[in-house]
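Here's a chain:
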Amino acid sequence: MQNDPFNLVSATAVFKKHGRFISFFTLGAVLVTTIILFPMPQYFRSTATVISANPVLADKARLFNTNIQSLYSYFGSGDDLDRIYGIADMDTTYKKLVDEFSLTDYYKLDGDSLPLLRRKAVLRLREDLTVRKTEKGQLQVIAWTKEKQLSADLVNRMVAILQQREADIWENNYQHALAQILSSTATMETEYKQLSDSLSTGNTASHELVAANRQSLLEQIRQYRKTADEYRLAIQTNPPVLYVMESAVPAAKAERPDKIAIILAAFIISLVFSSLLVLINNRNPE
């Protein structure tokens, strides 16, 4: 029976004989790793967690129907979350952050035209600021930057932009509807005045017809004015588009790169590699 080229006794002897090589190789690898990691910038992470609100609650009917709040949940569905995610992923959202926080300076970009610099900053920001959906039906906004306060500010501003964008959509729709109602009301008021003036002329039969038309028109004007007031109130009391479950705060310490973990991994890998290298080079021939 042939002897096993490796056994515990021979391996121990090899390790003792070449222990200095293993030690120097391992320490050298750790030293090189430390030298490489030392100048690398540290990055701080900030995270905010939000959930979607039910868009049905943005309907103006909620203000005048006492049952609306009990009929609908305060929280939105997965489709509502997808809509918010779509807004967050738009270039216009990232461009707004780039402009507000002067990120072209933060990323030290120069030498090109302003539109190109903004585009480059957006691409860099997309790497540092991400939005993701969780399995729990939440949306997380995560930022990694070299400045802890900047990370938190970027995340919280992104959340505010999402809130404002959706609120603006509802407000613009209501403003447009209100403008149309006011225009129609003004037209009816003009017609009402003309009918009132016509009562001074004509026969009795025409007077009755004009009076009936005027009364009907007056009821419409009252209804339109009531509807206009409802739209004004809805514009002033827009509900939240999303609920912030956790706002971003500055990180207590840098989380990337994890220098201790990387150095420890380099130590273990170099130790194992050098040990295997010594064993292979000193194996006994069969």
The longest helix spans residues 148-198. The first strand starts at residue 44 and ends at 52.
